[in-house]
Amino acid sequence: MQMLTPNPLALTSKRGISAALVGLLLAALPVQADNASFWKISSDIGAYGLVGTALAVPVGQGDWIGLAQAGLSVATATGIGLLGKALLDVERPDQSGDDGFPSNHAANSFAAATTLHRRYGWKLGFPAYGVAALVGAGRIQADKHYWADVCAGAAIGVFAGWLFTEAFDGTVKIVPWASRREAGLALAINW
Question: Which end of the chain has fewer CB atoms < 10 Å from its terminal CB, N or C?
Answer without folding.
Answer: C
